[in-house]
Amino acid sequence: MQTKKITLVGYYGYDNLGDDIMLDCILKEIANQIPNIKVEIICKNSENLSSILSKYEYVNHIEFKSKNKFQNFKIYIKSIRNSDITIWGGGTCFSDEDGIGNFKYFIFNILLNKPFAYLGIGIGNLNKVRSKIKTKILFKTMLFATIRDNTSYKFAKRKYIQKNIFLTSDLSYLFKISNKRIEKPYILISFRDLRNFYSSSEIEKRHTNILNFVSEIAIKENLQVLFLPIDSVKDSAINERNSIYFSNNYSIKSEYILDNKLNSKINYIQNAKYNFSERLHSLVISKFCHLNCVGLSYSPKIDRFFEEIDSKSYIPYDKEMNQKEIEKAFSYVPEISNLEEIEKKTKTAKQNISYLKKFIYAEET
């Protein structure tokens, strides 16, 4: 087979646990399935990113200069001109709150007639007219897309496109996590910056209700409370602020943890007695390791994950985050993860890269 070149883009270089995990899974599975390949990844730089990329000799990193948009566009265009395909890798990249499918860069692919595609993505809330128009343009011009959940898949098929769209599962199912852990006497809380989703008063009420409930568990079981930002860029302020609030208002020892390293975040999640989180991939790790966790959903994507693995230990995004709902979710915490369903999802996660291989070598078959 002829050597092919991929330009890879995504929410990388921001020390977000979920995106770092998905990037590692993409690169590892490409190495397993597509031997004759070169990957050029364009993104910011970070310690985590460098650690991940150092494992893969076939990957070249081109750093985006975050404050120079014109230079970034030049870097991007140069890369896609010399690539066979551009890939967006993982995450809910179509939503009113978090952006529409890398539109501002993929428009160059459309103009230059350079193919682009999506791997293991999800679709969130698309209510704005502008979001719908951009989504329609991208889905009509992309080469293919693999979709990580059935709801997003059905929505895309019904609203936007009938061909070259495939149902797979989240790329993080491919991540290998050690089952070795030492349970420590703490509750882990990971809040997300939700300003794109709720008003300030709604966020404050939501988080106060969670902290009140957690404080009761911590007192009853003599546990410390740790606050860990899963996205070290976006979530640091909200977790630090709540850590200070918790220390000042509850007679319980608490600590704010700012550790950007991928493995450190995983260790904090694995060793917690309970994990209360608004971040999807923090909950994914807990469930994969059969640990006690409560999903604090703000988005359909978290609901879909818990539904996939037949778990009820979460508060749905369309429910009020009140004492009753939190107690209800916590009552399911001892449940065992559906291992059979997780194994099925792991197999379908490999198909994300199988479809990539199929399309980049389509002309040779």
TrEMBL record:
A molecular function (GO) term: transferase activity
Q: Which InterPro entries match?
A: Polysacch_pyruvyl_Trfase
Query: What range(s) does the Polysaccharide pyruvyl transferase domain occupy?
Result: 16-299
Where does the source fall among the domains of life? Answer: Bacteria
Mind listing the UniProt keywords for this protein, alphabetically? Answer: Transferase
One Pfam family name is: PS_pyruv_trans
Under which name does UniProt file this protein? Polysaccharide pyruvyl transferase family protein WcaK
List the source organism.
Cellulophaga baltica
